[in-house]
């Protein structure tokens, strides 16, 4: 139990410290358009649940080599005491208030679910492969991975709100090998369901004072089981279920992007990176 708390604290702090500059009930990074007013206070809290991870995490260390040259010009690779080898974007590139899946991009809707459309030319890599974590020494850092998804995030929804946060990793890389670090909790952020497809989502997030009530008053999204041949996209709750207006979905719908898909990335995933066969529980290494 002590070990798990030590791992979780940096991530939980991220929702109140890493994103703590947002004002209660106000937009922090500018004034939204008239149709995107800032959201109201959260609903009354109810019993909370922890989201369930449904697939084995990525264990393919070849991603370290694959993405090194791609990301070298935009940040630095460091050895974090908790998460091993990670990449941190340069503040000169992303700005001082960078938060993954919040700044420098927006949500779009595809046949695969919610897709994070990054504004950065290198965004096809760290927002669709690997996991983001908050670190004490470097701020937001990225752990490489070899599986594609529209976005590696966990979702919560209900009572007129939708929330998301970078999916917590189960593994990290040290000295080129895999290390199991256990389960964790995503640092959620929330917007009103009618603001989800805002072109600048960081301007309409709910202030951190309401986060505990929103986490307690929303439901974690668990993807339904289905046959898989590769990565399971964390597609998110259906727009209608999440309360997202139909006309917003229509305006935000795009064709599923193909850049950066596994078939276009120069690696051959190791057998251990595949999803555990149906009926066989995944057992992490000791």
Describe the structure.
This protein has one domain (2-221, 231-273). The protein contains six helices and twelve strands. The model is unreliable at 1-56 and 270-286 (pLDDT under 50). It has helices at 2-18, 62-71, 91-94, 211-216, 239-242, 246-252; strands spanning 75-80, 84-89, 105-110, 113-118, 131-135, 139-143, 153-158, 161-166, 171-174, 177-180, 189-192, 219-220. The strands form five sheets. The protein has a four-stranded antiparallel β-sheet with strand order 11-8-7-12. A hairpin with a 3-residue loop joins strand 5 (131-135) and strand 6 (139-143). The protein is 17% helix and 21% strand. The chain has 286 residues and is of the alpha+beta class.
């Amino acid at each position: 139990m002590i070990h798990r708390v030590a791992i979780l604290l940096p991530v939980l702090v991220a929702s109140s410290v890493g994103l703590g500059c947002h004002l209660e009930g106000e937009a922090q990074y500018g004034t939204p358009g008239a149709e995107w007013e800032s959201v109201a206070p959260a609903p009354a809290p109810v019993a909370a649940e922890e989201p369930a991870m449904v697939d084995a995490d990525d264990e393919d260390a070849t991603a370290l080599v694959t993405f090194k040259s791609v990301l070298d010009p935009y940040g630095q690779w460091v050895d974090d005491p908790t998460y091993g080898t990670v990449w941190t974007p340069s503040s000169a590139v992303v700005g001082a208030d960078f938060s993954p899946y919040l700044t420098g991009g927006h949500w779009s809707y595809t046949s695969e679910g919610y897709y994070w459309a990054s504004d950065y030319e290198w965004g096809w890599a760290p927002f669709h492969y690997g996991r983001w974590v908050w670190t004490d020494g470097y701020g937001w850092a990225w752990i490489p991975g070899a599986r594609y998804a529209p976005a590696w995030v966990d979702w919560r929804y209900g009572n007129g709100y939708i929330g998301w946060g970078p999916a917590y990793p189960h593994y990290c890389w040290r000295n080129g090998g895999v290390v199991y670090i256990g389960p964790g909790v995503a640092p959620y952020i929330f917007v009103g369901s009618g603001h989800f497809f805002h072109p600048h989502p960081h301007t309409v997030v709910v202030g951190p004072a309401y986060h505990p009530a929103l986490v307690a008053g929303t439901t974690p999204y668990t993807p339904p089981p289905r046959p898989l041949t590769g990565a399971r996209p964390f597609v998110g709750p259906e727009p209608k279920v999440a309360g997202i207006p139909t006309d917003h979905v229509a305006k935000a719908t795009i064709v599923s992007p193909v850049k950066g898909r596994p078939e276009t990335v120069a690696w051959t995933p190791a057998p251990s990176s595949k999803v555990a066969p149906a009926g066989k529980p995944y057992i992490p290494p000791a």
